[in-house]
Give the backbone structure.
Amino acid sequence: MRILFMGTPDFAVSSLKALYESGEHQITVITQPDKPKGRGYTLTPPEVKVYAESVGLSVYQPATLRNEAFAALLRELDPEMIVVAAYGKILPKNVLDYPKYGCINVHGSLLPRYRGAAPIQRALIDGETETGVTIMYMAEGLDTGDMLYKTVVPITEDDNFETLFDKMAAAGAEALLQAIPSIVDGTVVPEKQDDRLSTYAVKIEKADCTLDFSRSAREVHNRIRGLSPFPLSATVRGSTVLKLVRSRLSDRTESSEAGTLIADGGRLYVVCGDGRCLEILELLPAGKKRMSAADYLRGNRLSDGERLG
């Protein structure tokens, strides 16, 4: 089958790789244009492009999908199915309506919950104990199409954005391979989403990264892990920005004010709004490399009652 695969970041690579390695499809790739990255603003290709070119797939990087040039390319490629995984742009109606077997999306949540741009991070921040991947038909609304296949992914206490991202990418690839045959042979039974149950996973902004220690230890911990290893949650010690990379819930409780730092035997704790202490395991001081709490304390003595924030 002729498949037009549309995706951009690492999450999409797993699905593209699964399709390619199945050996059952003729695949062409659409991805975002190369973008400048890093301090030198070096033009850098998307991860999907890097993988696709490494296995000899044709790659196109249109600046827009809404002109005659792309419409002509679509007619030339004549895909029977379009598969989208974190492409990063909304598909116009003429693209959605083109393929015989439709446009399907690999979405990183159990729809209708967590529609939108940051479903994996928001699930962690909200303290969910499970999430999953939904294969869905694409519609003109944002993640509102009929659901075709779901798979559940448990969230463990130790998961952060990086580890859950990897599990979700693998689950999405497997779900895609499971869903395609039933779509093609007509046995799939689409399920409409109940909009009353929907939630929206808004894009992570800078304001989301600021920690509020007046919240419970669990809420603070969930925000830290939901934003690690990127973009990282942040607070301030005096005039220095500290980004927190890894934390652990502890049984220790204190009556000190929320945000108070406690050093004890090379371990670093912060008091949260419920009186419970959150242990800081790893952090990133401004202008320095990531380090353990023990290494940080060796070079940074705390004063009594010192607070973060």
Notes: The longest strand covers residues 240-253. The mean pLDDT is 97.
